[in-house]
Hints:
By secondary structure, this protein is α/β, with parallel strands linked by helices. The chain has one domain: Rossmann fold (3-Layer(aba) Sandwich). Helices cover about 40% and strands about 20% of the residues. The protein has a 7-stranded mixed β-sheet, with helices on both faces. The site of S-adenosylmethionine (SAM) has 22 residues, from helix 4 and strand 2.
Amino acid sequence: MYRTARPGLARLTGADAGTLDGFFEELGPVAENLWREVARTPSAGALMQGPLLYVLVRTLRPAWIIETGISSGYSARLLLEALERNGSGHLDSIGIDVFARGRRPGEGKPGLEGRHVGWLVPERLMGRWSLHVGTSQEKLPGLLEGKGRSLGLFLHDSLHQYPTMSWEYTTAWPALRPGGVLASHDVHANRAWRDFLGAQGLSRDEELDHDLGAVRVPLGPGP
Ligand SMILES: C[S@@+](CC[C@H](N)C(=O)[O-])C[C@H]1O[C@@H](n2cnc3c(N)ncnc32)[C@H](O)[C@@H]1O
């Protein structure tokens, strides 16, 4: 994954190979620890490309990140590990409480009963994290209201269906600062990503690894 993603990350961020290699090296033990925790709960579900987000955040050093789709919190954990290493920044995660308290027994995924959404985020990283339980349609507009263009990174990993993807992209895009990044999982699930890029006149997106797309807000006039 890392070898195939490196050229795309370099083009997207403008970082040189040495810088990226340094971040990939530091990622090694962080990802190994996390995998050990996930492996105890095989149905945890995770954005497999999460480790690339770690490198992206170490490289671009965003002050504010929003992600949609939390599940166990694998991507949240890696984003937060990177912010912590940066020494600055905050993550807002929006997601449905899939392992919900109050669900009927046997309704959730096996092994996840009784766990709260985002359970992979440890106490030591909580200071940089806000968890918003609800759909992106319910929570995102309020988070962005009055914040202007100050978002450094937006990640879509919620419902991979055209209306949700399209709505999240078009809602988040104007909130991204110049040089900020819109990233999305499952960009081949339907035409939402391609249609969005076309509508914005964007041609320089990168597919960092299987289905993880990313595009940067131009540093010029912007959206
Ligand atoms: C692919 S999983 C997220 C995985 C997570 N990013 C990780 O790496 O662990 C997608 C999650 O999005 C949630 N979801 C579905 N529709 C949603 C919506 N409209 N808004 C926010 N979250 C949603 C689902 O409940 C599910 O937990």
